[in-house]
Amino acid sequence: MSAPALTPAAAEPVTIRTRLFGPLTVDRRDFIHFPEGLLGFAGERDFVLLPTPAEGIAWLQETGDAGVVFLTVDPFRFFADFALDVVDGTDEEEQATRDGDLDVRCIVTLPADRSAPCTVNLQAPLLIDRRRHVARQFVAHDSPWHTRHELDLRAQLQG
After folding, report:
1. Does the pLDDT at position 100 exceed 80?
2. Does the N-terminal or the C-terminal CB of the chain have fewer CB atoms within 10 Å?
3. 153 sits in which H/E element
4. Beta carbons of 147 and 117 less than 8 angstroms apart
5. What is the pLDDT averaged over residues 18-34?
6. Residue 55 three-state SS
7. What pLDDT is stored for residue 98 in this prediction?
8. 75, exposed or middle or buried, with CB in 10 Å at 0-12, 13-18, 19+?
9. Residues with Cβ within 8 Å of residue 123, at least 6 apart in sequence
10. Least confident of 71-80, 87-96, 150-159
11. How far apart are CA 48 and CA 50, in angstroms?
12. Containing H/E element for 6?
């Protein structure tokens, strides 16, 4: 007896509340599940990535709490020398990397003083398996990267 053919799940639109964008309708298939949560947000597990018009920049919005949202950047786009060695990666992450399905995002901290640069946490990037919609925050302990790399996002966007 053969296994039944897998068919894609039907689109299931869900309305989520967001503090920045108001109510948004998203497809439940676009949810990204963080089984372990994020550092400092262990109870927040389901997010959706909201692209911006600027390439390499997206918002990571928690689906159940309108106030939990992070600005993220593609570190490879904004930091030319950024490299990541996921030495304790899972088999699924290694496969996603080989298949080109692993998205790496880093969380941006916006300064209270708008004239100051943003900082980016390159030490603990988010590893998102786009095919499986599962992610985790990877902390690179023995790394040249730290949690507060400056990034003049305004200059990057104007350039």
Report:
1. no
2. N
3. helix 153-158
4. no
5. 96
6. coil
7. 55
8. buried
9. 139, 140, 143, 145, 146, 147
10. 87-96
11. 6
12. none
Residue type, 22: G
For the chain, the average pLDDT equals: 87
Confidence (pLDDT) at 2: 41
How does DSSP assign 25-50, residue by residue? EEEGGG-EE-TT-BTTBTT--EEEEE
- Residues counted in the chain: 159
User: Cα 7 from chain centroid?
Assistant: 27
Say what the pLDDT of residue 153 is: 83
Residue with tokens 């676009």: 30
User: 3-state SS of 82-128?
Assistant: CCCCCCCCCHHHHHHHHHCCEEEEEEEECCCCCCCCEEECCCCCEEE
Residue 72 CB coordination number (10 Å): 25
Averaged over 34-56, what is the pLDDT? 95
For residue 2 the two structure tokens come to 């053969």
Give the Cβ contact number of residue 65 at 10 Å: 16
Partner residues linked to 136 by β-bridges: 127
pLDDT in tens, 55-82: 999 999 999 999 999 999 999 999 999 9
